[in-house]
From TrEMBL:
<dbReference type="InterPro" id="IPR013818">
    <property type="entry name" value="Lipase"/>
</dbReference>
<dbReference type="InterPro" id="IPR029058">
    <property type="entry name" value="AB_hydrolase_fold"/>
</dbReference>
<dbReference type="GO" id="GO:0017171">
    <property type="term" value="F:serine hydrolase activity"/>
</dbReference>
<dbReference type="GO" id="GO:0016298">
    <property type="term" value="F:lipase activity"/>
</dbReference>
<feature type="domain" description="Lipase">
    <location>
        <begin position="31"/>
        <end position="274"/>
    </location>
</feature>
<keyword id="KW-0964">Secreted</keyword>
<keyword id="KW-0732">Signal</keyword>
<dbReference type="Pfam" id="PF00151">
    <property type="entry name" value="Lipase"/>
</dbReference>
<feature type="domain" description="Lipase">
    <location>
        <begin position="287"/>
        <end position="529"/>
    </location>
</feature>
<protein>
    <recommendedName>
        <fullName>Lipase domain-containing protein</fullName>
    </recommendedName>
</protein>
<dbReference type="GO" id="GO:0005615">
    <property type="term" value="C:extracellular space"/>
</dbReference>
<comment type="similarity">
    <text>Belongs to the AB hydrolase superfamily. Lipase family.</text>
</comment>
<dbReference type="InterPro" id="IPR000734">
    <property type="entry name" value="TAG_lipase"/>
</dbReference>
<dbReference type="GO" id="GO:0016042">
    <property type="term" value="P:lipid catabolic process"/>
</dbReference>
<feature type="signal peptide">
    <location>
        <begin position="1"/>
        <end position="20"/>
    </location>
</feature>
Length: 556
């Protein structure tokens, strides 16, 4: 059904494009007058230079163009004003000419790209690229423009435009840089005609920053922070902020000479499973804002910050590599030293009955009132904590087969990312009603999932992520509004997961849960003969698999 719908939408878009082309070509023709060229050098960087015909040697001779210098062409994206300070090519021009003595040729096709006829761009780009190709070939003939010393760059739809231009000139550009190419209406089987591809130049580099076009398009494709929603972009519903971040990154590498080392990887999962990682250097997380505290049965009430990379400091804190180790991350916006803090409560319960190392991870200094901003940070946060844990393995002999990690709400999603980043090495991972905000079922790289550990148990009690996420998912009292919680107080039900888990530790209360497809079947008694399991506990039931339902009121 879904595939059929997608196919219908695809052919509808095709017919719309063809039909609009027949009608609109006469109303809005693509011709030379709609495309302008501006030549900039270090001697003339003002935005308001006059347009010139680059195929006319007399006009080019009136500029500071020098064919012996590197030449950079740039094409704008849609809905950009050519001389606005936010125009992608104007920003790139300022960065390049600040750092390099080069020719910069701005290809302004805004009279075409800004017509509010997005669906008609496929044909427009192909026609415009053919016109631009002829201009560039003329320039090669009379000015000795060296294509071996030339490159072309563009962002979004501009990235698709430069791809079409590069293909039109026979792939002769030495370098083509595409910044987060737009995906709408740019289909893979058309990429040799009107979009970016390996045929666009001798070396085509593509930087992905927003999931607009997820698939590799060039000779080298770089996925910035996973190529998804970028940190510090706030409530970026259409990912426009993330989309533009590729431009900021590119400019940063030009102006500051920064080189961000990237690891070759088949997937984001494989990338996170290695120790070496690449983070967005524009917005790094300060390691000193993540604090680690180690507690044991002898130091339950001490609050001793530990340098987990230093084995001697670990020993002073009472850490023993021979004991079981439990890591904990508290929920969003919790105060670390409050008695009510999730991890403080779990610490008291666990250390009362178990002689272990308890590692309290305090990330409160990174917490903000902007939850959506926090969501963009947690992938980087997870990798930062992963690095420290791997250092603990190397320095203090931490045994991941004798190790678990637990988190509640947003903390549950973070422990999932940490687990994934460590290659799923944790013996067990427990998620207490993981938050649901902007965590999608079809994408499991920034949330808790089966890949987070050897065995992942998730307890659902309220407005958290309702779909199954782990090896075993337990739905308490239907996994929705909990008894004794007001119907308007979702947070009450949300945090019942913590109360229930504590009861399984303190009172050894582990109710029977029945494997079941859904709550309706469970409550109607259709699952009473199904396999059973026991949720919660210090060591979870690793024989469980699938969805389980149970009723419990003893945590009150």
């Amino acid at each position: 059904m879904i595939a059929g719908t997608k196919l219908l939408l695809f052919w509808t878009s095709c017919l719309t494009t063809v039909y609009s082309g027949i009608i609109l070509d006469n109303i809005f023709p693509v011709n030379e007058s709609k495309i302008k060229f501006y030549v900039y050098t270090r001697n003339d960087t003002a935005n308001s230079v006059d347009p010139i015909d680059i195929s006319n040697p007399d006009e080019v001779s009136q500029t500071y163009f020098n064919s012996t210098k590197p030449t950079v062409f740039c094409a704008n994206s849609v809905f950009e004003k050519p001389f606005d300070v936010t125009n992608s090519c104007q920003r790139i021009k300022n960065a390049i000419l600040k750092a390099h003595d080069a020719n910069f040729i701005f290809i302004d096709w805004s009279s075409i790209s800004n017509r509010n006829l997005y669906f008609h761009l496929l044909g427009d780009i192909e026609k415009a690229a053919d016109i631009i190709k002829n201009k560039i070939l003329d320039m090669i003939d009379y000015s000795e423009l060296d294509m071996e010393n030339s490159q072309i760059v563009g962002a979004s739809v501009g990235a698709q435009m430069i791809g079409a231009i590069g293909t039109a000139v026979g792939g002769n550009f030495q370098q083509v840089v595409a910044l987060d190419p737009a995906s709408i209406y740019f289909y893979s089987f058309w990429k040799n005609i009107n979009s970016i591809s390996t045929k666009s130049g001798k070396h085509v580099q593509v930087i992905h920053s927003s999931a607009y076009h997820r698939y590799p398009l060039g000779h080298a494709d770089y996925y910035m922070n996973g190529g998804l929603a970028q940190p510090y972009c706030g409530m970026d519903l259409f990912r426009l902020c993330s989309h533009a971040r590729s431009i900021s990154l590119y400019m940063h590498t030009i102006v500051n000479g920064a080189r961000i080392e990237a690891s070759k990887c088949d997937s984001l999962e494989d990338f996170y499973a290695t120790k070496y990682t690449v983070l967005d250097v524009l917005f790094p997380i300060d390691d000193t804002k993540i604090k680690y505290y180690i507690y044991t049965q002898n130091t339950t009430d001490d609050h001793y910050e530990v340098n987990v990379v230093d084995p001697k400091d670990m020993l002073r804190a009472g850490f023993s590599k021979d004991k079981h180790t439990m890591f904990c991350l508290f929920a969003y916006n919790e105060l670390p030293l409050e008695m009510s803090n999730t991890c403080q409560r779990i610490k008291r319960a666990v250390l009362k009955s178990h002689d272990i190392n308890y590692v309290f991870i305090d990330w409160s200094l990174l917490s903000t009132d902007d939850l959506f901003q926090m969501l963009r940070l947690i992938e980087i946060l997870g990798v930062k904590i992963r690095d420290k844990i791997l250092d603990m393995i190397d320095g203090s002999g931490l045994d991941m087969n004798n190790c678990q990690i637990i988190g509640a709400s947003l903390g549950a999603q973070v422990v999932g990312i940490i687990g994934l980043a460590t290659g799923g090495l944790f013996r067990q991972v427990i998620g207490l009603d993981p938050t649901a905000y902007i965590f999608f079922p079809f994408y499991d790289k920034n949330r808790i999932s089966k890949k987070s550990g050897q065995f992942v148990q998730v307890i659902h009690t309220g407005p958290g992520y309702f779909l199954p996420m782990g090896h075993a998912d337990y739905y308490m009292n239907g996994g929705e509004l909990q008894p004794h919680c007001p119907t308007t107080d979702w947070y009450c039900s949300h945090m019942v997961a913590v109360l229930f888990y504590l009861s399984t530790i303190i009172n050894d209360n582990k109710p029977v849960a029945y494997k079941c497809e859904n709550a309706d079947r469970f409550y109607s008694g259709q699952c009473k003969n199904n396999p059973t399991s026991y949720p919660g506990g210090f060591l979870v039931d690793r024989n469980a698999s699938g969805k389980y339902y149970f009723t419990d009121y003893t945590y009150y």
